[in-house]
Queue: 2 jobs
Job 1
Amino acid sequence: MANQEDVFKKVISHAKEYGYVFQSSEIYDGLSAVYDYGQNGIELKKNIREYWWQAMVQLNDNIVGIDAAIFMHPTTWKASGHVDAFNDPLIDNKDSKKRYRADVLVEDHVAKIEAKIHKEVTKAAKRFGDSFDKEQFLSTNQRVLDYQAKADDILKRLGKSLENEDLADVKALIEELEIACPLSGSKNWTDVKQFNLMFGTKLGASADSAMDLYLRPETAQGIFVNFLNVQKTGRMKIPFGIAQTGKAFRNEIVARQFIFRMREFEQMEMQFFIKPGTQQKWYETWKEKRLNWHLSLGMGEENYRFHDHEKLAHYADAAADIEFKFPFGFKELEGIHSRTDFDLASHEEYSGKKLQYFDPEENKSYVPYVLETSIGLDRMFLAVFSNSLQEEELENGTTRTVLKLPAVLAPTKAAILPLLKRDGLPEIAHKLIDDLKWDFNVIYDEKDAVGRRYRRQDAAGTPFCVTVDHQTLEDETVTIRHRDTMEQQRVALSEVKDIISKKVDMRYWLQRI
Ligand code: ATP
């Protein structure tokens, strides 16, 4: 078994080799934590966005979309709390000169303790066999209980010191836990300092009249400031949602995990406006709905888990992450936040405009509460891509690299391959492409032996190959080869479109939610 680091390196190099993700401005040695999507990456990204959009907007008659600008009036970020509170606690190692997020250092330490618990569980499961009861083991084994108590204590203390802005205690905690710099092993730390994550820029030409702006650090605020516009013009009745996808920018400190943490990234967010007092119900509902959306892609139930927040952001009364098992462990993929009336009430205060809803059932106006679902498109891309990349041992002793992307998300749905470059086979292949291209992306490939072409498409993630051979000339049938099973099926040329459409059509996948 390759170790986690090797697996992750393989993911990054495969993403480059097959035109999915490139380092930004690579010919100038790149720009840290900024990436470009290549010819296949753009298609995968677009399909994920569309899969989200259809599930949220098209299939819910009470959710509509908008596309707000990246630049917003600077007071927006005062009202949202980002100017004052969108900070990360930073700590530098004096020997390696490396900078870290202090909370992440502590959380990684806790993850190591949790890994020990996991190890105990695996050991015990092996020992007890079928009679093993995981829940009972977790609640009675003294060693596990000690580890768990230790992990809980650390996180509780971290949460409390961050909440009280007690940065000296965060440093004390790092020292007490004897956390060392992962790079140098040194425990020689500076004090912990706060660092604002927003990128600033200027609007206007002359220095004295220029206005300080920020690149938006989240798409959510574009939705809040348009709440009334959409509610009134769309005659929306509570409960209703506004969805948006778009770029966000954060000057991230620790940006070493490929497209997991970028400085320029894309979010897919939905703000659901509800009656105050109903937030608990909607929180549970959206947690379930969003998890089901993920599960519908068939990437393994065991790869997801909820993580409830101990430390709540200034705007939230409940929050959970959907975590995914990335090559470097379980990490946040999506956040579900009960934001109360914090945002709308705060924009009311700063703008002096009423941001309320008249509820005809209650016969009164109120500031709605908000339930948010927020997922990073690039992070979702990484989840899908890393989960799909597999090395398979074949019966004949060779291995194949296959990118088992969910067919609905795959950039190219089918490759059309004439067995030979002559005898009229390429002409039939081109004719088939001319028919299929109206429905989905297809490509033509005539180079190399057909086995090599199959492997190339396996690695690129194409779910189907259609081979045109001499028998096609006789009876108008072709072979469809399935990427995941390598199974080959002889079908009539006229059936190809239907067979592939069924497997790649969003409808068939979305119906599983
Ligand atoms: P993290 O704790 O990982 O920094 P966060 O809690 O700050 O994330 P949110 O502000 O809740 O993240 O943003 C919602 C989603 O946006 C996250 O779940 C994640 O998928 C995505 N996201 C946030 N920051 C980044 C980033 N720097 N690069 C890529 N995706 C990001």
Note: The longest strand covers residues 329-340.
Job 2
Amino acid sequence: MSANPTSREESFLVTGGTRLAGEIPVAGAKNSVLKLMAVALMARGRTTLTNCPAISDVPAMADVLRHLGCTVEITGDTVSIDTPAEVGHVADDKAAQRLRASVCILGPLVGRYHRAVIAMPGGDAIGSRPLNWHQTGLTLLGATTRMDHGRLVAEADRLTGARYGLKFPSVGATETFVTAAVLAEGTSVLENAAREPEIVDICTLLAKMGAKISGAGTSTITIEGVDELRPVSHRVVGDRIVAATWAMGAVMTRGDVTVTGIDPMNIHVVLENLRAVGADVETGEDRVRVRQEGRPIARNIRTLPFPGFPTDLQPMAIALASVSDGLSVVTENLFEARFRFVEEMIRMGVDAETDGHHAKIRGRERLDSATVWASDIRAGAGLVLAGMCADEVTEVCEVFHIDRGYSDFVGNVRSLGGVIERVDTSR
Ligand code: EPU
């Protein structure tokens, strides 16, 4: 797996004017594999995950687990985690702060060891990221939580089943509650649970390990506590956000892309939107072909929890609107700061304005190439797609963000015919 941490000073140079075409396989989902690695803390012995993506967040999570006492090997697309009988419960501050997803060790540690100490993650480029609903879930199961010198401390003498109704179907709060409840005494019920395919994947792994869970993928998840879990092997679900990135790139560049390794149902709403802007979409069991002739038509899009249009594709939706014919309104309902992306699109000559939850974008036939900044993984990918629709060479700076979530981004873009190069701008 080639996922060495990359320099903050690396940029992508993207030459506009090419059309994306060809077939591209998609690896396992970032937002599943990191959680599955954390779930390995819950069973003594070796858990093996296959179809893992070569992204920099995977070795970062491996470091978090190593600091707790696990042995982690990464070979090709396989990650093996050996968990000893006892692991530490204090996450290394620096290892954890490099990776916001380190929050996902909270539920597994409290579930199996009844205690966890993790550095409180701050807000990030996409907005504030509080943990209050994670804490409420743990408290209902019998734990206490408190802040201590910038760390969240959770402790319990015993965990007992509880009923919890989430105010909003938070992905992270669902994971924390479910992972802590699987080893609690008695029955737990989570209402208004997140329904994302990655939640289903985590519950599938837990069930293989011996957990008793029903309702994953629906709004109500029921968990009967068991005494222990056993380690198993599991194949990570395909990354729907990466798959949809290439599909949206095909539409923006008037190309023809087939993405494999993905259940089309996991991007059903995205594909409906692509059909509505004029794309020809064909689906198979584990593949999607998206073709676009002519200019896409403007369309209003609003982000929502699954099965709605994913917030992680909001930058791509804005990039698509920027080259569509007409006025599009994109509404963001999850992460308020994601509209910073619009400022980068304005550098590329787009007529756009934001107002709270809404961005209004009037598309152009072709964008102006410019120097633009990736503020997070998805904004970075959206800017590359925009760069492919620009007149000359666009420099996308700080692409270490993209490396956190996309395996071999340059290789994949080139395999589809895009013209892109990674450069070190520190020299
Ligand atoms: N929220 C709270 N309190 C909480 C938890 C969440 O107010 O205790 C709020 C958040 O501030 C946000 C909303 O609830 O406004 C949704 O947050 P959620 O908990 O669902 O998000 P998350 O678990 O922190 C995951 C993904 C994100 C993805 C969101 C939504 C991981 C590691 N991250 O975050 O992915 O955008 O779900 O689908 O799974 C990305 O991959 O680029 C990324 C940011």
Note: The chain is about 30% helix and 25% strand.
